[in-house]
Predict the 3D structure of the following.
Amino acid sequence: MGESENAGLKLQFDGHLRLEFRGAKVTTDTGLLAVRELDEVMGLTNIAGDFICEARTGRNVQHELAGLLKQSVYARLAGYEDVNDQEALTRDPAMRAVVGKRALDRNAASSQTVSRFETEILAQEKNIEALASINIAWVDNAVSRSTNKKIVLDMDSSEFPVHGSQEGSSYNGHFGSRCYHPLLVFNQYGDCEAATLRPGNVHSSDGWKNLLEPIVNRYRKTGKRIYFRADAAFASPDVYDYLEENRILYAIRIPANQNLQREIDHLLTRSVGRPPKKPRVLYHDFSYRAASWDRPRRIVAKVEWHQGELFPRVGFIVTNVSAKARNVVRFYNKRGNCEQWIKEGKYALSWTRLSCTKFSSNQVRLALFVLAYNLGNFLRRLALPKDVSTWSLRSIQLKLIKIGAKVVSHARRTIFQMAEVAVSEGLFAALLERIRSLAAVPT
């Protein structure tokens, strides 16, 4: 028989090629199956029903809360940041396979159903708190798998630009944009411990204690030694007093002033002779009491002389850590990882996409993005084989989650015939093996 004239789309550069669109038989997100495996082993989204309250009753409820949460979180991890994208995912084989038991027998939830779930059910005040509680349970689950006796908390704020009249958004002069100004806390593993959405015009440290204190109280119960790092926006006597009262070791950058500069005058004279190619780095520590402080505190200074620069680069850190000045600076510099994790959330997940009109709905969106980020980070730090353990969240998304596959259904099983490009069968098998080994780890 001859070929049908309607057999796919033709390409001008090669008449032998045809394009066919079979959305129910192919998928671009097969890596979500590995995410679902990790989710199952760690018992993450299945706890949704224990936290989220709903008023749905009757026999017309087709999608369970856990399945809806999976669909909202997994879609964001796969790069679908808008609820409108859910319409295309309804029939996607990978999404149908991960949202519930034997979900390939039926479609995933429609975009209308997911929208009601996010903007009506989750936007209730008690459920916004429930999403925060779910995130706490997730992070506790992941952190408990480490034997480390200390926890390091990094706090930072970020600019989330908006492009409409979203409730609570405001112009921020520092960023030069109309935005939200959320506050986030990460631990040393890259897990986002908590995040709170704030109006765009608040100070960087506004509400720091309300966000930090519950985290501190959790870890005090575990007996872990708590460390804290932050930039100069958090250099405040109230912050120092709280940390010291709770026996938390901290390193916080402090703005320079004339009194601090006087303490390091002996380091600010350029050495005689041709400067070396490598930067010349000097450290100094001293006791200092600002006018607003009730006691003197230790200051660590770092002075860097660079070739071709007339003046040195100077930085000051206030700390109660007793380590050598050089080691205090090294400890503080790792705070840069926090900024990198925020960027990963922005560029891999687009978690700045808070486009709802209501502030409460955008709180929900941020909370769902945080869950998606943490799920991806758990996959990175707990499951990736050694050869790819340095992958960024963006690499995980593009190389692992975005594996294309053809779906072949038989009477007794469904087979995903996966493309072997960035991830080989051996690598994927090792990934699944590491995930399954987590089931033997007590939590």
Notes: The chain is about 40% helix and 20% strand. The CA atoms of residues 45 and 69 lie 7 Å apart.
